[in-house]
Specification:
By secondary structure, the protein is an alpha/beta fold. The protein is built from eleven helices and 16 strands. The chain has helices spanning about 35-45, 50-65, 70-85, 95-105, 115-145, 170-180, 195-210, 220-225, 250-260, 295, 335-350; strands spanning about 5-10, 15, 30, 150-155, 185-190, 215, 230-235, 240, 245-250, 265-270, 275, 295-300, 300, 315-320, 325-330, 330-335. The two termini are about 30 Å apart. The structure holds 5-S-methyl-1-O-phosphono-5-thio-D-ribulose. The site of 5-S-methyl-1-O-phosphono-5-thio-D-ribulose (MRU) has 17 residues, from helix 2 and strand 9.
Length: about 350
Protein backbone atom coordinates (compact mmCIF):
# COMPACT_ATOMS: atom_id res chain seq x y z
CA UNK A 1 0.00 0.00 0.00
CA UNK A 2 1.01 3.62 -0.41
CA UNK A 3 2.13 5.82 2.47
CA UNK A 4 -0.70 8.21 1.67
CA UNK A 5 -4.41 7.70 0.96
CA UNK A 6 -6.09 9.60 -1.86
CA UNK A 7 -9.48 9.13 -0.18
CA UNK A 8 -10.81 7.50 2.96
CA UNK A 9 -13.96 7.32 5.05
CA UNK A 10 -12.95 8.37 8.57
CA UNK A 11 -15.44 8.64 11.45
CA UNK A 12 -18.35 9.70 9.27
CA UNK A 13 -16.49 12.15 7.04
CA UNK A 14 -14.70 11.77 3.71
CA UNK A 15 -11.00 12.56 3.98
CA UNK A 16 -9.14 13.47 0.80
CA UNK A 17 -5.50 14.25 0.18
CA UNK A 18 -5.56 17.70 -1.44
CA UNK A 19 -3.84 16.96 -4.76
CA UNK A 20 -3.75 20.64 -5.71
CA UNK A 21 -1.10 21.19 -3.05
CA UNK A 22 1.15 18.22 -3.85
CA UNK A 23 4.06 17.66 -3.97
CA UNK A 24 5.16 20.54 -1.75
CA UNK A 25 2.41 20.28 0.89
CA UNK A 26 0.64 17.22 2.23
CA UNK A 27 -2.77 18.42 3.39
CA UNK A 28 -5.84 16.30 4.11
CA UNK A 29 -9.30 17.90 3.92
CA UNK A 30 -12.45 16.51 5.54
CA UNK A 31 -15.80 16.75 3.76
CA UNK A 32 -19.16 16.34 5.45
CA UNK A 33 -21.69 16.91 2.64
CA UNK A 34 -22.18 15.75 -0.92
CA UNK A 35 -22.07 19.40 -2.08
CA UNK A 36 -18.56 19.74 -0.65
CA UNK A 37 -17.53 16.54 -2.41
CA UNK A 38 -18.95 17.85 -5.70
CA UNK A 39 -16.87 21.00 -5.28
CA UNK A 40 -13.76 18.99 -4.38
CA UNK A 41 -14.13 16.94 -7.59
CA UNK A 42 -14.70 20.09 -9.69
CA UNK A 43 -11.68 21.80 -8.10
CA UNK A 44 -9.53 18.68 -8.58
CA UNK A 45 -8.74 18.15 -4.93
CA UNK A 46 -9.28 14.60 -6.09
CA UNK A 47 -9.00 13.56 -9.73
CA UNK A 48 -8.44 10.53 -11.92
CA UNK A 49 -11.33 8.44 -13.19
CA UNK A 50 -11.43 5.66 -10.55
CA UNK A 51 -10.77 8.07 -7.65
CA UNK A 52 -13.64 10.31 -8.80
CA UNK A 53 -15.95 7.26 -8.76
CA UNK A 54 -14.93 6.45 -5.19
CA UNK A 55 -15.32 10.10 -4.13
CA UNK A 56 -18.83 10.29 -5.59
CA UNK A 57 -19.80 7.02 -3.89
CA UNK A 58 -18.63 8.33 -0.53
CA UNK A 59 -20.34 11.66 -1.29
CA UNK A 60 -23.60 9.77 -1.57
CA UNK A 61 -22.81 7.85 1.62
CA UNK A 62 -22.42 11.20 3.41
CA UNK A 63 -25.92 12.16 2.34
CA UNK A 64 -27.47 8.93 3.52
CA UNK A 65 -25.54 8.59 6.76
CA UNK A 66 -26.33 12.17 7.83
CA UNK A 67 -29.91 12.23 6.63
CA UNK A 68 -32.61 13.00 9.18
CA UNK A 69 -35.30 11.49 6.95
CA UNK A 70 -37.84 9.43 8.88
CA UNK A 71 -39.28 7.63 5.86
CA UNK A 72 -37.48 5.73 3.13
CA UNK A 73 -39.10 7.79 0.36
CA UNK A 74 -37.77 11.02 1.86
CA UNK A 75 -34.29 9.46 2.07
CA UNK A 76 -34.51 8.32 -1.55
CA UNK A 77 -35.44 11.81 -2.64
CA UNK A 78 -32.41 13.30 -0.81
CA UNK A 79 -30.20 10.67 -2.42
CA UNK A 80 -31.60 11.44 -5.88
CA UNK A 81 -30.74 15.13 -5.44
CA UNK A 82 -27.22 14.30 -4.29
CA UNK A 83 -26.72 11.81 -7.11
CA UNK A 84 -27.72 14.37 -9.75
CA UNK A 85 -25.20 16.86 -8.37
CA UNK A 86 -22.44 14.24 -8.16
CA UNK A 87 -23.10 13.09 -11.73
CA UNK A 88 -22.72 16.70 -12.83
CA UNK A 89 -19.32 17.20 -11.20
CA UNK A 90 -17.18 16.16 -14.21
CA UNK A 91 -18.35 14.86 -17.59
CA UNK A 92 -15.67 12.71 -19.22
CA UNK A 93 -14.68 9.92 -16.82
CA UNK A 94 -17.34 7.24 -17.18
CA UNK A 95 -16.41 5.59 -13.87
CA UNK A 96 -18.33 8.35 -12.08
CA UNK A 97 -21.56 7.44 -13.91
CA UNK A 98 -20.91 3.73 -13.47
CA UNK A 99 -20.58 4.23 -9.68
CA UNK A 100 -23.74 6.31 -9.50
CA UNK A 101 -25.65 3.69 -11.55
CA UNK A 102 -24.45 1.05 -9.10
CA UNK A 103 -25.71 3.16 -6.19
CA UNK A 104 -28.99 3.82 -7.98
CA UNK A 105 -29.59 0.07 -8.20
CA UNK A 106 -29.57 -0.01 -4.38
CA UNK A 107 -31.91 2.96 -4.10
CA UNK A 108 -34.43 1.24 -6.33
CA UNK A 109 -33.98 -2.17 -4.69
CA UNK A 110 -37.37 -3.01 -3.11
CA UNK A 111 -35.73 -5.26 -0.54
CA UNK A 112 -34.05 -2.22 1.05
CA UNK A 113 -37.35 -0.90 2.35
CA UNK A 114 -36.28 0.84 5.55
CA UNK A 115 -34.20 3.92 6.27
CA UNK A 116 -31.61 1.98 8.25
CA UNK A 117 -31.31 -0.83 5.66
CA UNK A 118 -30.78 1.67 2.85
CA UNK A 119 -28.27 3.72 4.87
CA UNK A 120 -26.24 0.59 5.68
CA UNK A 121 -26.36 -0.60 2.08
CA UNK A 122 -25.17 2.74 0.63
CA UNK A 123 -22.20 3.02 2.97
CA UNK A 124 -21.13 -0.58 2.57
CA UNK A 125 -21.42 -0.29 -1.25
CA UNK A 126 -19.13 2.76 -1.19
CA UNK A 127 -16.59 0.77 0.85
CA UNK A 128 -16.86 -2.15 -1.59
CA UNK A 129 -16.33 0.14 -4.61
CA UNK A 130 -13.16 1.52 -2.98
CA UNK A 131 -11.86 -1.93 -2.01
CA UNK A 132 -12.61 -3.48 -5.40
CA UNK A 133 -10.76 -0.65 -7.12
CA UNK A 134 -7.49 -1.60 -5.40
CA UNK A 135 -7.94 -5.29 -6.23
CA UNK A 136 -8.76 -4.45 -9.86
CA UNK A 137 -5.67 -2.28 -10.19
CA UNK A 138 -3.41 -5.04 -8.93
CA UNK A 139 -5.02 -7.45 -11.42
CA UNK A 140 -4.35 -4.96 -14.23
CA UNK A 141 -0.71 -4.95 -13.15
CA UNK A 142 -0.54 -8.76 -13.15
CA UNK A 143 -2.08 -9.00 -16.61
CA UNK A 144 0.40 -6.42 -17.90
CA UNK A 145 3.56 -8.07 -16.59
CA UNK A 146 4.23 -10.27 -19.66
CA UNK A 147 4.19 -7.09 -21.79
CA UNK A 148 6.93 -5.36 -19.79
CA UNK A 149 10.48 -6.49 -20.64
CA UNK A 150 13.07 -6.94 -17.88
CA UNK A 151 14.94 -3.81 -18.94
CA UNK A 152 12.32 -1.31 -20.01
CA UNK A 153 12.09 2.41 -20.59
CA UNK A 154 8.43 3.38 -20.36
CA UNK A 155 6.71 6.66 -21.21
CA UNK A 156 3.73 7.52 -19.01
CA UNK A 157 1.31 10.43 -19.39
CA UNK A 158 -0.69 12.25 -16.67
CA UNK A 159 -1.13 10.54 -13.30
CA UNK A 160 -2.73 7.14 -13.00
CA UNK A 161 -1.29 5.94 -9.73
CA UNK A 162 -2.51 5.67 -6.14
CA UNK A 163 -3.63 9.28 -6.28
CA UNK A 164 -5.89 8.72 -9.29
CA UNK A 165 -7.47 5.60 -7.77
CA UNK A 166 -8.38 4.24 -4.33
CA UNK A 167 -4.81 2.88 -4.30
CA UNK A 168 -2.08 1.25 -6.41
CA UNK A 169 -3.07 2.74 -9.74
CA UNK A 170 -3.63 1.52 -13.29
CA UNK A 171 -0.90 2.52 -15.78
CA UNK A 172 1.44 3.77 -13.05
CA UNK A 173 0.52 0.62 -11.09
CA UNK A 174 2.02 -1.41 -13.95
CA UNK A 175 5.28 0.53 -13.68
CA UNK A 176 5.21 0.07 -9.91
CA UNK A 177 4.54 -3.67 -10.12
CA UNK A 178 7.30 -4.23 -12.68
CA UNK A 179 9.71 -2.43 -10.35
CA UNK A 180 8.46 -4.40 -7.32
CA UNK A 181 9.07 -7.61 -9.28
CA UNK A 182 12.72 -6.64 -9.70
CA UNK A 183 12.56 -5.54 -13.34
CA UNK A 184 14.98 -2.82 -14.31
CA UNK A 185 12.45 -0.11 -15.13
CA UNK A 186 13.07 3.48 -16.11
CA UNK A 187 10.05 5.78 -16.47
CA UNK A 188 9.85 8.92 -18.58
CA UNK A 189 7.06 10.97 -17.04
CA UNK A 190 5.31 13.47 -19.29
CA UNK A 191 4.85 16.52 -17.08
CA UNK A 192 1.30 16.80 -18.51
CA UNK A 193 0.35 20.39 -19.07
CA UNK A 194 -1.58 22.30 -17.93
CA UNK A 195 -2.05 20.95 -14.39
CA UNK A 196 1.20 19.00 -14.36
CA UNK A 197 -0.18 15.77 -12.96
CA UNK A 198 2.92 13.97 -14.29
CA UNK A 199 5.54 16.40 -12.96
CA UNK A 200 3.81 16.86 -9.62
CA UNK A 201 1.88 13.68 -8.84
CA UNK A 202 3.40 10.78 -10.80
CA UNK A 203 6.87 12.01 -9.86
CA UNK A 204 5.79 12.22 -6.19
CA UNK A 205 4.56 8.62 -6.28
CA UNK A 206 7.49 7.07 -8.15
CA UNK A 207 9.96 8.91 -5.92
CA UNK A 208 8.27 7.42 -2.87
CA UNK A 209 8.37 3.96 -4.45
CA UNK A 210 12.02 4.21 -5.48
CA UNK A 211 11.30 3.74 -9.19
CA UNK A 212 13.97 5.44 -11.34
CA UNK A 213 12.45 8.14 -13.56
CA UNK A 214 12.91 11.42 -15.34
CA UNK A 215 10.29 14.14 -15.86
CA UNK A 216 10.12 15.38 -19.45
CA UNK A 217 8.00 18.06 -21.11
CA UNK A 218 5.10 16.63 -23.09
CA UNK A 219 6.69 17.69 -26.38
CA UNK A 220 9.89 15.73 -25.69
CA UNK A 221 8.41 12.24 -25.95
CA UNK A 222 9.02 11.97 -29.72
CA UNK A 223 12.64 12.95 -29.24
CA UNK A 224 13.10 10.28 -26.56
CA UNK A 225 11.46 7.67 -28.75
CA UNK A 226 13.83 8.38 -31.67
CA UNK A 227 17.03 8.87 -29.75
CA UNK A 228 16.88 7.02 -26.45
CA UNK A 229 15.21 3.66 -26.99
CA UNK A 230 11.73 3.69 -25.50
CA UNK A 231 10.21 0.20 -25.15
CA UNK A 232 6.58 1.08 -24.55
CA UNK A 233 4.10 3.78 -23.61
CA UNK A 234 1.38 3.18 -21.04
CA UNK A 235 -1.46 5.54 -20.18
CA UNK A 236 -4.74 5.40 -18.28
CA UNK A 237 -8.20 6.17 -19.59
CA UNK A 238 -11.24 8.19 -18.64
CA UNK A 239 -13.57 6.47 -21.08
CA UNK A 240 -13.04 3.71 -23.64
CA UNK A 241 -15.68 3.57 -26.38
CA UNK A 242 -17.03 0.27 -27.74
CA UNK A 243 -14.62 0.48 -30.70
CA UNK A 244 -11.58 1.07 -28.47
CA UNK A 245 -11.27 4.84 -29.04
CA UNK A 246 -9.97 6.16 -25.74
CA UNK A 247 -10.49 9.48 -23.98
CA UNK A 248 -7.62 10.34 -21.68
CA UNK A 249 -5.71 13.39 -20.48
CA UNK A 250 -5.00 15.96 -23.18
CA UNK A 251 -1.80 15.07 -25.02
CA UNK A 252 -2.41 11.32 -25.03
CA UNK A 253 -3.41 11.39 -28.71
CA UNK A 254 -0.16 13.14 -29.68
CA UNK A 255 1.84 10.58 -27.72
CA UNK A 256 0.02 7.66 -29.38
CA UNK A 257 0.62 9.00 -32.89
CA UNK A 258 4.33 9.50 -32.24
CA UNK A 259 4.57 6.02 -30.69
CA UNK A 260 2.91 4.60 -33.83
CA UNK A 261 5.31 6.52 -36.08
CA UNK A 262 8.24 5.04 -34.15
CA UNK A 263 6.86 1.49 -33.98
CA UNK A 264 6.62 1.57 -30.17
CA UNK A 265 3.77 -0.32 -28.42
CA UNK A 266 1.14 1.99 -26.96
CA UNK A 267 -0.94 0.47 -24.15
CA UNK A 268 -4.05 1.77 -22.41
CA UNK A 269 -4.49 0.44 -18.86
CA UNK A 270 -8.04 0.67 -17.57
CA UNK A 271 -10.51 -1.20 -15.39
CA UNK A 272 -13.55 -2.57 -17.19
CA UNK A 273 -15.54 0.13 -15.37
CA UNK A 274 -13.91 2.61 -17.78
CA UNK A 275 -15.23 0.76 -20.84
CA UNK A 276 -18.44 2.35 -22.04
CA UNK A 277 -20.20 0.02 -24.45
CA UNK A 278 -23.04 2.54 -24.82
CA UNK A 279 -20.65 4.94 -26.54
CA UNK A 280 -19.97 3.56 -30.00
CA UNK A 281 -16.91 5.65 -30.89
CA UNK A 282 -14.74 8.41 -29.53
CA UNK A 283 -16.50 11.30 -31.26
CA UNK A 284 -19.49 10.69 -28.97
CA UNK A 285 -17.44 11.32 -25.82
CA UNK A 286 -18.04 14.66 -24.14
CA UNK A 287 -14.75 16.46 -23.58
CA UNK A 288 -14.55 18.70 -20.53
CA UNK A 289 -13.41 22.26 -21.20
CA UNK A 290 -11.64 23.62 -18.13
CA UNK A 291 -11.02 27.19 -16.98
CA UNK A 292 -8.63 29.44 -18.91
CA UNK A 293 -6.68 30.17 -15.74
CA UNK A 294 -5.18 26.66 -15.90
CA UNK A 295 -3.32 27.79 -19.05
CA UNK A 296 -2.74 31.45 -18.31
CA UNK A 297 -1.35 30.80 -14.83
CA UNK A 298 0.91 28.26 -13.15
CA UNK A 299 -0.42 28.35 -9.63
CA UNK A 300 -0.55 32.10 -8.92
CA UNK A 301 2.01 33.12 -11.54
CA UNK A 302 0.62 34.58 -14.77
CA UNK A 303 2.50 33.29 -17.85
CA UNK A 304 0.50 34.71 -20.77
CA UNK A 305 -0.35 38.31 -21.63
CA UNK A 306 -3.59 39.64 -20.13
CA UNK A 307 -6.87 38.71 -21.81
CA UNK A 308 -5.59 36.14 -24.32
CA UNK A 309 -7.99 33.62 -25.76
CA UNK A 310 -7.39 30.13 -24.40
CA UNK A 311 -8.52 26.63 -25.37
CA UNK A 312 -8.35 24.15 -22.54
CA UNK A 313 -9.85 20.74 -23.34
CA UNK A 314 -8.96 18.50 -20.39
CA UNK A 315 -8.98 15.33 -22.50
CA UNK A 316 -8.52 14.12 -26.05
CA UNK A 317 -9.57 10.96 -27.84
CA UNK A 318 -6.97 8.56 -29.21
CA UNK A 319 -8.38 6.61 -32.17
CA UNK A 320 -8.12 2.89 -31.51
CA UNK A 321 -5.90 2.34 -34.56
CA UNK A 322 -3.03 3.83 -32.52
CA UNK A 323 -3.62 1.55 -29.51
CA UNK A 324 -1.65 -1.71 -29.38
CA UNK A 325 -3.78 -3.21 -26.60
CA UNK A 326 -6.09 -2.32 -23.73
CA UNK A 327 -5.00 -3.88 -20.46
CA UNK A 328 -7.92 -4.62 -18.12
CA UNK A 329 -8.21 -6.59 -14.88
CA UNK A 330 -9.72 -9.43 -16.89
CA UNK A 331 -7.16 -9.62 -19.62
CA UNK A 332 -5.24 -7.87 -22.38
CA UNK A 333 -7.52 -6.91 -25.25
CA UNK A 334 -6.08 -6.65 -28.76
CA UNK A 335 -7.67 -5.48 -32.03
CA UNK A 336 -10.21 -5.89 -33.44
CA UNK A 337 -11.38 -3.93 -30.39
CA UNK A 338 -15.02 -3.71 -31.35
CA UNK A 339 -15.31 -7.49 -31.40
CA UNK A 340 -12.99 -8.23 -28.49
CA UNK A 341 -14.35 -5.56 -26.14
CA UNK A 342 -17.87 -6.81 -26.82
CA UNK A 343 -16.77 -10.34 -25.91
CA UNK A 344 -15.06 -9.08 -22.74
CA UNK A 345 -18.05 -7.07 -21.58
CA UNK A 346 -20.57 -9.79 -22.47
CA UNK A 347 -18.73 -12.22 -20.23
CA UNK A 348 -19.42 -9.83 -17.36
CA UNK A 349 -23.12 -9.56 -18.26
CA UNK A 350 -23.45 -13.37 -18.48
CA UNK A 351 -21.91 -13.70 -15.03
CA UNK A 352 -24.23 -11.11 -13.44
O1 LIG B 1 -8.21 15.56 -15.25
P1 LIG B 1 -7.74 14.37 -14.45
O2 LIG B 1 -6.49 14.61 -13.68
O3 LIG B 1 -8.87 13.77 -13.63
O4 LIG B 1 -7.40 13.30 -15.56
C1 LIG B 1 -6.90 12.07 -15.18
C2 LIG B 1 -6.45 11.26 -16.31
O5 LIG B 1 -6.55 11.57 -17.47
C3 LIG B 1 -5.94 9.95 -15.95
O6 LIG B 1 -4.86 9.63 -16.72
C4 LIG B 1 -7.12 9.00 -16.12
O7 LIG B 1 -8.19 9.42 -15.33
C5 LIG B 1 -6.82 7.66 -15.78
S1 LIG B 1 -6.85 7.49 -14.06
C6 LIG B 1 -6.31 5.99 -13.62
Amino acid sequence: MSKFKSIEWVDGVVRMLDQRKLPTETVYNDYATYAEVVQAIKDMVIRGAPAIAVAASYGLALTSSRSQAVGVDALKSELATAMDALRGSRPTAVNLFWAMDRMEALITDPSLGSVSALKDAILSEAHIIAKEDVEINKSIGMKAMPLVPDDATIIHHCNTGSLATADYGTALGIIRMAHEQGKNIFALLDETRPRLQGGRLSAYELKEQGVPFKVIVDGASGHYMRRHGVDLCVVGADRVAANGDTANKIGTYNLAVVAHENGIPFYVAAPTTTIDMATKHGDEIEIEERPASEITHVRKCQITPDDVEVGNPAFDVTPSKYITAIITERGVIYPPFEENLAKLMNVEEDND
